[in-house]
Design a protein that fits this description.
Strand order of the largest sheet: 3-2-4-5-6
Number of domains: 1
CATH superfamily: SGNH hydrolase
Shape: globular
Amino acid sequence: MPRVTLCSLVPIVVAFAAVYFASHLGVWEQAVQTICSKPAATRPTLLLLGDSLTEQGVDPNKSGWVALLQNRYQRSADVLPRGLSGYNTKWFIEFALPVIKRELSSGGISPSLITLWLGANDAALVDGPSARQHVPVDTYTANLEEIILALRASAPDADLLVITPPHVDDAARLQRSRTGRLDRSNAIAGEYAKACVVTAERLDVAVLDVHSLFKSMSAREQAMTLEDGLHLSAWGRGPRSRSRSMSRFPRGTDSWIGC
């Protein structure tokens, strides 16, 4: 049976994320098997770093993307989520990164691929009820670079995949606000997403621009995709329309067909 390989891990997760988000976007395309000829020497490990978007991804009741990955590759790879709800890049560097660096340097974790999904909390409005989480976009960019370089130094053999902050539904966030004030906005989230893409491309790191995936959606689809205006819902589990092309996703739509 085919086995996952190191050189196939980035397109695997990019493609899986693409298919996952595409199912919410009303798109479903046939996955294509792509395998490198030389199998990995050891069982691959996928290390998923981020905030609540990663932490909540573990929840199977929400068709969480992490839970889907764990189910998809349970016989082929270890999927290790390290999602920290509420964290911005500043707190991640201060509290999480030292622990992760120790794990990586000691050999406690030897990932073949690391995903990094931060920025949704950095983009909290500076004058909103979540202002404590706000990190200026220039500082966010510098922090993101620091994290990427630290991960590269601690896990030089691992591939990296950076994911941008997602779309924000302003109306839904305002409706859920206890203070009557908006905590996040899509316009500001878009600025952080652009900064994320620019930083990743400058550092030659694979990037999945989740924020841009929402631009061609209708308002109804956007609302159904997000359960609270920020976090992904369980909508879109079944097959959807083929009306949109998968070409918007980086590195194509190839995915590994596991054992």
